[in-house]
Specification:
The complex is a heterodimer of chains A (about 375) and B (about 260). Chain A is mostly helical. Chain A is built from 15 helices and four strands. A two-stranded antiparallel ribbon of chain A has the order 1-4. A two-stranded antiparallel ribbon of chain A has the order 2-3. The N terminus and C terminus of chain A are likely disordered. Helices cover about 40% and strands about 25% of the residues of chain B. A six-stranded mixed beta sheet of chain B has the order 6-7-8-3-9-10, with helices on both faces. Chain B has a four-stranded antiparallel beta sheet with strand order 2-1-4-5, with helices on one face. Classes of the chains: A mainly alpha (about 375), B alpha/beta (about 260).
């Protein structure tokens, strides 16, 4: 895809670099594309590779990768709220919990299949988000943050107190079934690997489309300047609410995957620190940049596993790294990049030539 | 035929009466200037018309609709667009994206169409980029469509703000000190631009301190002082109006 864009953007100002430099850029583009392709291919065969080279610890590492995948889905859903719309939301675990419990209850008490519960889990989390966020959506920055912390605590306490006699109190719910997709039962870590990472890929694609659309742009305008956005005709409170509901619904969907993977869920899986973890992933990786969020999940959820030998000291190092990071690179490892646009037919000829005066255009990559 | 009319519009902030019973109208197709000393309540009037703040009393009609109390995005959809006294572009976004923000209210693609990139959404996206580029071309910034708004020179930022407002397809364009901070050449270009905007059939209402600019561009001028409309008329009438001269120059015994 990057190659296609590179071509499209050899337009007027891209033409500034026409000549040998442009050709080198093109080659580098192909090289990067090729390497990414190889990397993806290797990742697709990861379960086989792990079995071949690290037979004993393969299931363990697959579990780690699966956890990374699950948190990637969650962090990508939080990214819609925190990254795209710029709303400080630190209660995302609440919607994750609602999704997981919806699946567990429907499966255990009503005998639904896991995959059938998935849309219900998403809708349930979305509806709860809609009701809870309605009165608070106009709050800004830190005020919203505090209220969302309240939300995650309320949900956790409600689950612990066995609301409606459905949630099993602090013991949680046990014996959730395994999912089957197109008749194939997903049981082992390598099954979950493909299941989870397929959802990650789908999430990346859908939210990439969302970001580069009327909807995503509206969120971007809100993040940049809410008052200007409202005055240019964006219904800011509606879009903020919708972003919140979309993010929450997707977290609910991730809850389904969590429930059927663990088979046992309890309130302690959805505590405040889980929300903080997700928040950290998005901020560390680069809010608004999906690749950054993916990288953030690997670093926050995956990297500590490599340092198990250091036991508790790894958390100390992790904390210190975060502090350093926020001082020297507050925008995250991969900050969000400007969107690319392809001009419709005819515009390239109508524009002034490459020699025209004009300020440099930061963030532009031919 | 008046496109906009205010009747007895009043707004107080705490004990301060910012706008006191202002009644006035703007004719369709005209270029109208709103002038007055600093603190006269001009920008407050603009904020009341665009819905940024709500009047305590009075009525505001636009094209026959009462727009009093509507939120800004609804008023934009009805056909009033504005620029700001202090430039309020989306600084980190490209010139094109800034203009696309104006197109938002004329687009239809919703959440599902955006999430699934449905064919209708893609068609709309192509059309809207074409239209946004058209507005950039109209203000003379098409070649800079990729430039970050914040990186543009001041005069270009002012023009980009106008392009963004025009992208909402307004019937009435409200400009808050469009020539503010511009040099002579830029002011001259702005005058031509306002002429072209009027040729498109768009009514213009503007606040400006540059009297030469106001008198040469506007058909009618409204004058405010201390929240009250003290005079209105053609530029010639205003220039010779004793009340206006008093407001601007002060009387000898004025303390």
């Amino acid at each position: 895809m990057s190659q296609g864009n590179a071509k499209n953007h050899n337009g007027p100002s891209g033409g500034l670099g026409a000549g040998p430099g442009a050709a080198a850029n093109g080659e580098r583009g192909y090289l990067a594309g090729g390497l990414t392709g190889l990397g993806l291919l290797a990742f697709a065969f990861l379960p086989l590779l792990l079995n071949a080279f690290a037979q004993n610890s393969a299931p363990y590492w697959l579990d780690v990768i699966n956890t990374v995948g699950l948190y990637t889905i969650l962090a990508l859903s939080l990214n819609v709220i925190l990254g795209f719309a710029g709303m400080f939301h630190m209660g995302h675990a609440a919607f994750f919990a609602i999704g997981a419990y919806s699946t567990a209850i429907l499966n255990l008490d009503y005998g639904w299949s896991i995959m059938a519960t998935m849309p219900v889990a998403a809708v349930a989390a979305g509806v709860v988000a809609l009701v809870l966020a309605w009165p608070i959506i106009h709050l800004r920055g830190d005020y919203l943050l505090i209220v969302t912390i309240g939300i995650v605590e309320i949900v956790r306490i409600a689950l612990t107190n066995n609301v409606f006699g459905l949630t099993g109190g602090s013991n949680g719910l046990v014996g959730i079934a395994r999912p089957s997709v197109f008749g194939f039962r997903i049981v082992q870590p390598q099954h979950f690997f493909y299941f989870i990472w397929a959802v990650v890929a789908l999430t990346l694609l859908l939210f990439h489309w969302l970001e580069n659309s009327r909807f995503g742009r509206a969120l971007k305008f809100i993040k940049e300047d809410t008052i200007a956005a409202e005055n240019m005709g964006v219904n800011t409170s509606r879009y903020k609410l919708m972003a919140f509901v979309v993010g929450a619904a997707w977290a609910g969907l991730a809850g389904t995957i969590f429930a059927c993977r663990m088979r046992t869920i309890s309130p302690e899986s959805f505590v405040f620190s889980e929300s903080v973890l997700l928040f950290t992933i998005v901020i560390l990786g680069g809010k608004g940049n999906q690749k950054g969020v993916l990288l953030g999940s690997f670093l926050v959820m995956g990297l500590p596993e490599f340092f198990r030998g250091f036991e508790d000291k790894r958390l100390l190092v992790f904390g210190a790294a975060l502090v350093v990071m926020m001082i020297f690179r507050p925008q995250g490892l991969l900050p969000s990049k400007p969107s690319r646009y392809k001009l419709p037919e005819g515009w390239d000829d109508r524009l002034p030539g490459p020699g025209s005066p004009g300020p440099p255009t930061p963030g532009q990559k031919p | 035929m008046q496109i906009l009319s205010l009747s007895s519009v009043t707004k107080t902030f705490g004990g301060l009466v910012a706008v006191a019973g202002v009644s006035c109208g703007v004719d369709r197709g005209a270029v109208v200037g709103l002038i007055g000393p600093n603190g006269a309540g001009k920008t407050t009037v603009f904020n009341l018309i665009t819905g940024s703040i709500k009047p305590d009393d009075g009525h505001i009609f636009f094209s026959g609709h009462s727009i009093k109390g509507l939120r800004p995005h609804r008023i934009v959809a009805l056909g009033i667009a504005r620029t700001f006294q202090t430039i309020r572009l989306f600084q980190g976004l490209s010139a094109l994206e800034n203009v696309l923000s104006g197109c938002h209210c004329r687009m239809r693609s919703g959440l599902i169409a955006s999430l699934l990139r449905l064919p209708g959404q893609r068609r709309e996206e192509r059309l809207v980029i074409d239209r946004a580029m058209g507005e950039l071309e109209f203000v003379g910034l098409a070649g800079l469509w990729r430039a970050t708004a914040g990186s543009l020179p001041y005069g270009d930022q002012r023009r980009l703000e106008i392009a963004r407002a025009l992208a909402t397809e307004p019937k009435l364009l409200i400009l808050d000190e469009p020539a503010g901070g511009m040099n002579e050449q830029e002011t001259l270009e702005l005058r031509e631009l306002i002429g072209s905007i009027r040729k498109r059939g768009i009514t213009v209402l503007l606040i400006e301190h540059d009297m030469g600019f106001v008198m040469s561009v506007c058909d009618r001028v409204l004058v405010m002082e201390n929240g009250i409309l003290i005079a209105q008329g053609t530029p010639q009438e205003i220039q010779t109006n004793p009340k206006v001269i008093e407001a601007y120059l002060g009387l000898d015994d004025d303390d």
